[in-house]
Write a structure and sequence with these properties.
about 400 residues, alpha+beta, six-stranded antiparallel β-barrel, four-stranded antiparallel sheet, 21 strands, about 40% strand, rod-shaped
């Protein structure tokens, strides 16, 4: 269009005045002015078209950010025992098998007690004999005492009767103790469950002769299971006994609470074990299952949440963004309303597509949120839209 305008002006200036009437001359001048005005508006429209439009957000400073880290641990029974008999003997009966549930004090297996019962009968006879000897010694001591009062016997004879009585009394106590000891052994020939549990392993069968302490069953407590999680040092400070924590086992969520934080650090992992007790329905949880937890920690440090699309790599390990600075006189630049400045940033934390940064930006700054690969410092732009940049990664 500009070329046509210039050409038209050239034709007017070179046309012979002797061939043009006054009316035609006025008409030509008026038409020329209209064309020149049209050419000027076309330049303005071209400037508006070439001014880059950018999407922006308003920087909002927040005092802290949240770190969320995932950890895995293992499900454990609150109590697990490998139980067996305290005495030796032949395994006579096993009442339960693997997978069975047993209640506390319920008899799980028994030993053959024939030998113990025979021995008990022998000890009972010895006890009865000692009791009879004691009664005789008591009568003898009483009669000797009466004779001594009548000067019918010597003090030596009375002393002998008295000591014989005391010796028989001690023999009776010894015989009673032997019977009680054997009764304990007979009772220990019954293997009883120490707590409500489920049998996870059975090691022996009937007819085997076992030794004291030899394992017969492995049992797991039926009560609420526990989860052992090893946490890094940076995350352990905010963990307190009783804190609620959600865990996931086999894709299902369960409520749990911190039962204890162990006072030692793992030698190989250098982590601190935290024991969690499962609070709600845990029938689908088994010992050895893998449990996962998300641990959150607040870090008190002023900064800004920005999208990754607002960052561009800078020097010395830093990052940068573009801040749109409003122009003083909007009409002085055709279509442009802001000028871009590059600001250096330090990236503190990243969550999904959002980053938490510190740097040379301030609360309320207009940050270019995307398309920064097209930008350079001092570029004049116009704002396409502007949103808030608070709240962090969701």
């Amino acid at each position: 269009m500009r070329a046509n305008c210039l050409s038209y002006r050239f034709n007017i200036s070179t046309r012979s005045p002797f061939k043009i009437s006054k009316f035609n001359l006025v008409l030509a001048i008026f038409t020329s002015l209209l064309l020149l005005s049209s050419c000027g508006n076309g330049d303005d429209n071209l400037a508006n078209t070439n001014t880059l439009a950018v999407s922006t957000l308003i920087a909002e400073q927040v005092p802290e950010y949240k770190i969320t880290q995932s950890y895995v641990g293992e499900v454990e029974s609150a109590r697990m025992s490998r139980i067996g008999f305290e005495i030796s003997g032949m395994l006579e009966e096993i009442a339960f098998d693997e997978g069975d549930s047993v209640n506390k004090a319920q008899v799980m297996a028994t030993l053959d007690t024939d030998r113990l019962k025979a021995r008990r009968a022998e000890l009972v006879a010895t006890r009865d004999q000692a009791k009879a000897n004691l009664e005789l010694a008591q009568i003898t001591r009483q009669r000797t005492k009466e004779a001594l009062d009548l000067n019918a016997v010597s003090f030596q004879e009375y002393d002998e009767a008295d000591k014989s009585y005391k010796a028989q009394k001690a023999s009776l106590e010894q015989a009673k103790s032997a019977v009680k000891t054997l009764d304990v052994d007979i009772e220990k020939s019954k293997l009883k469950a120490p707590f409500d549990s489920v049998i996870s392993k059975r090691y022996l069968d009937e007819g085997e002769v076992i030794q004291p302490g030899q394992e017969v069953f492995e049992i797991l407590e039926r009560a609420s299971p526990e989860v052992r999680i090893g946490l890094a040092t940076s995350m352990i400070d905010g963990i307190k006994v009783g804190d609620p924590i959600e865990i996931k086992v086999n894709g299902k969520s369960y409520d749990s609470k911190v039962k204890t934080v162990l006072p030692i650090r793992g030698q190989n992992t250098r982590t601190v074990d935290v024991i969690l007790s499962v609070e709600n329905d845990f029938k689908d949880i088994r010992q050895g299952d893998i449990a996962s937890v998300n641990i959150e920690k607040l870090v008190s440090k002023n900064g800004f949440w920005l999208p990754l699309t607002a960052l561009t790599e800078s020097s010395r390990g830093l990052w940068s963004c573009y801040v749109a600075i409003p122009l003083g006189d909007v009409d002085s630049v055709k279509g442009a309303t802001h000028r871009l400045e590059r600001r250096e940033l330090e990236l503190l934390h990243q969550e999904f597509e959002m980053v938490y940064v510190q740097g040379t930006i301030s609360d309320g700054d207009i940050i270019v949120s995307e398309g920064i690969q097209r930008l350079v410092p001092d570029l004049l732009v116009k704002i396409n839209n502007s949103t808030s940049a608070s709240g962090g990664a969701e």
